[in-house]
Amino acid sequence: MDNQVKEYTVTIYTENQIGLLAQITNVFTRHGLSIWSLSAGATSMEGIHNITIVTSGVEKKVKESVQQIEKRVDVIKAFFYTADKIVYRELCLYKVSTPALLENGDIEHLLSKYHARIVEMNKIFTVIQKTGLSEETAALHDDLKPVGVLQFVRSGRIAVSRAEQEPVFKFLRKREKERKQLLNQ
Q1: Parallel, antiparallel, or unpaired: how do β-strands 49-57 and 35-42 relate?
Q2: Which long-range contacts (CB under 8 A, 24 or more apart) does 40-45 make?
Q3: In which residue ranges of the chain is CATH 3.30.70.1150 found?
Q4: Assigned CATH class of 89-155
Q5: Could you give the percent of the chain with pLDDT greater than 90?
Q6: CA end-to-end span of the chain, whole Å?
Q7: Distance of alpha carbon 103 from alpha carbon 57, whole angstroms
Q8: Domain 6-81 class?
Q9: pLDDT at residue 93 in the model
Q10: What are the tens digits of pLDDT across the range 49-78?
């Protein structure tokens, strides 16, 4: 295993149970891993939720954390990936002064350059939405500084593996097959 510190995306498939998120974050804390981003939500499978955590550390510590998380009763399966093994994005909202934005006169070019869009505009403020990689959302933030960013918020990373199907599907099929074999004995 590599002793180099790298960024990892941890994907945890779970039942949606009270207190589980606190237990999962405690595992990261005990292993000395910082959580840079965290998002949670439903998956395409009924009753199964996904927690996505971005952390950085050495592979051994991340792997140990994932193994410990999988021991939780409510956790179905957990995986960890480097950036090349997933497709990921985050969503950002930027609130800027409408008068300042209009004075700038380069709104259309800026929106086009970053593939961003206006989601709300009134006399006082304009809210711009950008979906993309961290570097892209940071670059738009920098370009909006002259206009004055009144508020900025970034979601946690959401990610899917580059595998054809969610890895948890394969795991669940295998588990169901083993369960049927036990019942037939």
Answers
A1: antiparallel
A2: 41/158, 43/13, 43/166, 43/168, 44/166, 45/168, 45/169, 45/172
A3: 89-155
A4: alpha beta
A5: 59
A6: 40
A7: 45
A8: alpha beta
A9: 97
A10: 899 999 999 999 999 999 999 988 789 899
